[in-house]
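Researcher: Next entry: Peptidase U32 collagenase domain-containing protein (Chlamydomonas incerta).
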Amino acid sequence: MKAEVRQHRAAQHPLPASSKVVADKTTSSSSERVGGYAAGDAPEKRKNRELYEGLQAATAGAGAGAAIAPATAAASPPASPAASAEPAVSYMLNAAPPRAQPAATTGRRHTPLAHKPEVLAPVGGWPQLRAAVENGADAVYFGLEDFNARARAANFSLEELPRVMAYLHARGVKGFIALNVLVFDEELAAVEERVRAMAAAGVDAVIVQDWGVVELMRRVAPGLPVHGSTQMSITSGEGAAWVAGLGVERVVVARELSVREIAKVRDAVPGTEVEAFVHGALCVSYSGQCFSSEAWGGRSANRGQCAQACRLPYGLLVDGLLRELGDVSYLLSPQDLMAVEQVPDLITAGVSCFKIEGRLKGPEYVALTTQMYRRAVDAAWAHLTGEGLTAEMAGGEGADGAAAADPEAAARAAVALTEQQRWDLEQVFARGQDGEHRGLTPGFLEGVAHQRLVRGRGPRHRGVYLGTVAEVGPRGVVLQLQAPLKRGDGVAFDCGRPEAEEPGGSVYDILDGGSGETSLSMGAAGGGGGGDTNTPVPPGTRVTLVLGQGVGQAEVLRRVSPGDLVWRTKDPALEQRLRHSWDGIAAAEARRLPVTAEVSGRVGEPLTLTLRALDSPAASSAGAGCTTASASSSVLLAAAAKRPMSAEDVARGLGPNLGEEALAVPAGGLDVSGLQLEAGLFLPASELKAVRRRAVEALLAARAAAALRTAAGMAAGPVLPGLLAAAAAERAPPAALALVRSLACTGPVGANGAARPEAGGKAGPGKAASSSQAAAAVGDREQQQEGLPAAEAERVASGAAAGPSRRGTVAEGGADGDGVAAGDGVCIRVLCRSREQVDAALQVPWLREVVVDFLEVQGLKEAVAAVRASGRRVVVATPRVLKPDEQRLWLFYLRLGADGLLVRSAGMLHTLTQLGGPGARVPDVPYPIPALEGDFSLNAANVLSASLLLSSGSSSSTGSSSSTGGADGSSSGEVWRGLSRLAPTHDLHAGQMAALAAGLGPRAALLEAVVHQHLPIFHTEHCVFCRFLSSGNSYKDCGHPCESATLHLRDQSGADHLVLADMGCRNTVFNARAQSGVFFLRDLLRAGIRTLRLELVDEAPQAVAPLLEGYRDVVLGRRGPGDLWRWLAALPDANGAAHGVDAGSLQPARERARGGMKPTAAALKQQQQQQQQQQGASRESAGAGRR
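Model: Predicted structure:
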């Protein structure tokens, strides 16, 4: 059955057209050159010349531009396309998006979308919810009290959910729930309950990260739409096609994509909607790929508990020496995203939903950003499609023709921001850096621009830039204003030390900057006659700021110096205006559900009233996106004996809100053209109201039923037990098991988790622990901790005995049936990141497998050849991120002739499985597709997601023998088309990993545990090398300092974290401290896991053999884990510094309760306002008592 489902999904989502290499003429103009480079420049001007030349040769010689079909041994090469001017890998700066072809419909339509995109607003609580609705949101997204990526937000309780959805639906607004975290096995039952409650409440969609949760939702509530979270790390059309095949209806693409790249994703999956972030905070790391909180705080960003390590200060070490950067120290803290002016291009690219980030922010932020994007989407859509375009929007009667001639230019002009609008957006939230970099940028939508994205002067909200201190005088601070300012506004002085409390306060008065005697904030009246006015002083004025009198002012002046930057941190007038947009508005002004009314009938027939509720921005009176209901009069229309019925009579009888407070008939929403008023009709007024009442009742009933469509088909009983039982019973593929057995470098594993020294032992079936034993505590802990430093021993022991936690406890388990028996040996393999490490590893006689992970591909081909020549198996790691122009890299990796590929992205997995999977042959590639193995970045966190990945294939016979076939005597013609092994996400600790193995039953042996590594804490599109070691904006003009310099980031504790750049210029920051699972080895082996991976980063070659021998000796029981632990703690990095070792993410740890987290600024402000209201009410009550 599963194989049939997979075949059906593959048929529905073949490899998308974006995998073609085609010429994009929009990117080759001379105006798009950056630093003298252009997209079509020759490969020798790029990084990794060998890679690009190889790809271009393959493209020209093998028809790489043709669509990929499932490969077979007899497949013939596709025809070659026209030569492309654009290399296979591209990073565009200010690249124009591809212009969409006009639709076949009449009228202008410069967008592939059939309906106007949604404006999706963030909601952290009730005030934000009302602010979003009243300011024009089409949809909102929010979290419940658990299982969402913003644990610090107020969120909503499960009991509140029906009321929230009723409030939204009554106003024609959709509600999406964020269930965008990884879910552990012990939580799946609770998630099933939440899914049932969501479907019953009429939730419009659920935003999901975990692939296992997607599978669970499809079985529990098939009518409940699933949106793929940006936490899924979808960066290409192939990745989007993969998750669409799982049942995802909309994908939220990574923030790191440009408009052009987003268009390619959308084109690749035309049946799947694309949602993109357009405003708010930018994470420096790819969402779903950040493990800094996991490494340093025992918290996880994939669990909604991000510690924001990217907003901390770091020093820059270049070749071991600390580089002086002045007041620049926030090297990983990006400015925020603002894409108001990119809205037309995003619509043209096919973005269906514009998402505003900010569930931790206040209602004022939500109100303003929703306003801005509502206005921009409406204006851009009108110009691009002609729908709803008025003469006023077009700029007058004559301008309408000009707008029609170039609608895209007209749309861009319509959304251009005024300076005042920019100031308002900066005021509600912007991480301003200086006068040129004011905190809001297009992010990556125009391509990479490293000098613009991260400036490094500060990590937090600043507000509006006012200028630079010219002098500090006796009356106050003198500066020339760069933005308006008035009395009562808040200001802060930026002295270049944002980590310290900065001087500032409320503006008491604004004097002229000359004599300092005249108040400029009283308008023309000066100091008299106009004392009640508070006129903003315009930019360009030289002023003296007075912050008060006495000690407070003197203390501020003492700490301020010429050259300090000045920011307006508070604008009470703006806050009041925004608050009035949702708080305390009159009922008549509140948002209502727009309903159009159509009246028809003639003499001798009943009057018919048809109502259409415009339930979405895509709704139209033609019926698309509408809920429709009709009612007819019980009295027939008659000829009028006296005054006939008029259109005004009909309008009065129906009323502006159809007699229902939540409804409203918009201007022009009443159509009486179907009513033959010219014939002189009569109908009693009471009958018209009766028709109205019946039509409204039918409409509301239809909308209530439509809202509950998500509950249709909901499973009657619990689904999870059956899914878990099926996952545990599924047999392991013989070919994959044969591979694991053939690579064992120890003898059989005993009941205590220790292995015998005999290599290659093949013990018969042994008694394996049952899955119910997976909850048992760690055994033999005292013995394992021998020699461990006291503090670390206490931490490990306390973690192991912590009882119920976010991650459970360490388990015992093993494989039954066709799995690797408890007696089978252990495969220990090493991942190398340099040729020197590879050569050192090949000196270890018992080592049978090497994983090669060269982030830069220079020398990769030779390293693969060296490992194969030594008789070992070689696996090549593929990139964690592949963008649309990079998907052809699969060809490069296949031509290496490796024995296996370590797959790290959904896009690569989809591509290789669509090509036929392991054993299939691809034209112009001399080797068959090798075995595929899944890595941690696929984020398998539970039995459902792991089973999904391990089942993504099927055994088949092939005429060609596999390099791994026959290791245990099985037929060499049997090839496993799915993943041969899988490393779970780093969010699992050792106990959960063991429990996961138990839950997979016989397939436990296909799991791999990474037991030694420097955790990859950040994986980012932002290039630290380019930003701080060059003046360039991208690889085109940076000079490639990554190829010559060694870079570390020094944190506040003095630890130095290595930074490496990959072939796509993405940076990975590795934790300085090594993470070791040496104390958990026996528990993992008892659970049935048979592959242990040791990862190297910058370890010296001479440390490789002792490291490998040390772990093998612990597995064999020859060496105590504490002894190896001490040796690991003293192992130096490339600069000769030792940063120690810890258990890191493998260590059980409790998650923080929301009450124990730092409250958000929005929550603190709300509490302050509530306290002020309570104090005001108390004073009023006391005054009334005295009176």
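Model: Note for the record: The CA atoms of residues 602 and 1141 lie 87 Å apart.
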